[in-house]
Fold:
Amino acid sequence: MSRHLIPFLLAAVLICGAPLCAVAQDPGIPKDHLFEVGELKPVDSTLKVKIGDPAPDFSLPTIDGGTISLAQFRGKKNVALSFVPAAWTPVCSGQWPGYNIVQDLFDQADTQLIGLSVDNVPTLHAWVQEMGGVWFPVASDFFPHGRLADALGILRSTGEAERSLFLIDKQGIIRYIDVHDINSRPDLGPLVKAMQELKNAQN
Amino acid sequence: MRLGIILFGLFLSFLAGSALAMEASESPASHPLPAGSVMPDLQLRGELAPEHLKHLGLTGQEPHNLSNIRGKTVILVAFSMYCPHCQREAPVLNELNALIESRGLAEDVKLIGVGVGNSDFEVKVFREKYAVTFPLFSDPDFKVNKEIGEVGTPFFYVLDLDAQKKQIIVADTMLGRMESAASFLDHALKASKAAR
Structure:
């Protein structure tokens, strides 16, 4: 970089108020980029697991080009799975941006959050990028289609996953399940409470 | 050097472009109450700090009626912990509240937030994360948001309170982030005065 450029860049940084800068990096998702789904059947699947069951293992591709498995957290961290039904839909687009500001709550509870949907990796990648990115890994349960969702019993008849939360302890045992009405966002409170209780029981 | 000027220009135009984009999580069903109309006497709930209740002149058990807030103008901002625009607006809202105080308007002008679709827990997360200095109410079942027209977030209502008539008049509305706290406050005060 030319040395002459530095004063200009400094000036640019000064002129640009912090909120403007944040907007420039993170435009959010405009309404016309989202697909309106209307009101859907609240739950359209039957759970195949219950609290106390071992969680099905998985190894899924993530939007950063890696893979993530349940086994890699065995004995190390609790795992929270947040399934959303579909990228580019309104309620889903308004769920993970909330989780994005509470990394400290997950860290304090010794819990790794993983976001999932049955969309393929490029779609999930584009959607999360447009959200402005998130701190937690986002995995694709695309192929074989919804295999993990189906093993948990949250694959809807139309091929999407339910809007659902699972908390799995370090031994791979399911400790909390919330298969939520697909049309609304779950309250963060009960999940955080369950995470803290699990952490406290482990100490 | 010339490259520097060009890059700087590009940078500025990029900023201007992004500033023009709607900085709000829009709501497809939105039908805000127009300026000049009567705002229903909202029932407000939430876990408010004692100093915030005192600041608003509210006593007793919740729900609190909007009309019981002590002041001439209420600036109500509908927000959500889940809305990235609101997350970015939080420091500017604190700035707005500080401005109301530093201009000696704190008795007459009250800034309040309503977390639409947010539980008490979610409002608490927002309050603590951004060290929010003004009172925040929760609206877990969207009851308040239904009354105020299922608005997107952030959404601003400037309300004029007529204590005698117990009537609340919508003086102005705005969807999306403020241009600046100072310009917004000037505009809100003018609108509130004109509504009287």
User: Anything to note?
Assistant: The two ends of chain A are 52 Å apart (CA to CA). The interface with chain B takes residues 2, 4-5, 7-9, 11-12, 15-16, 18-24, 26-28, 30-31, 36, 90, 94-95, 97-98, 100-102, 105, 131-132, 185, 187-189, 192 of chain A (CB under 8 Å).
